[in-house]
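[Automated response] Your request has been received and processed.

Submitted sequence:
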Amino acid sequence: MSAKQEPSVWQGFKAFLMRGNVVDLAVAVVIGAAFSNIVNSVVKGIINPLVGAIGTQNLDNYSSCLSTKCEGTHGIQLMWGSVLGATLTFLVTATVVYFLMVLPMSRYLARQAARKAAREGTKEVVEVSELEVLKEIRDALVAQRGSGHVER
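Generated structure:
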């Protein structure tokens, strides 16, 4: 009786780490972290001061009080400035990702698909023309056999 040897936990973990999609995901996380720092800097350095031109440059200072008195920890404050800042950060991030990554990649993939379709179209034309030539050869052979062959 021979028992099948199952891979060890370490071998399974090593195989998991060496798969391409895990490495791609790790790279994406690192790039994403660096990219979020850039976007946060743009929002804090450019967008917030533009919004702050009508008030304060720190959007976290925008709030509304729901109770009669809001001082320190007393009262109910809605910190809508923080929400506005996070929304602006999201919009800038989404815009940059779309215009610098998604749009160029979709255009590239569309060009690749068009090239592939053109190659397949050319291949189809070649196949059709070969088929036509073969039909003509067949017809010529049939005509030759019919005219040179005497029936008894």
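Summary generated for your ticket: The chain is about 75% helix and 5% strand. The first strand starts at residue 64 and ends at 65.
If you did not submit this request, please reply to this message.
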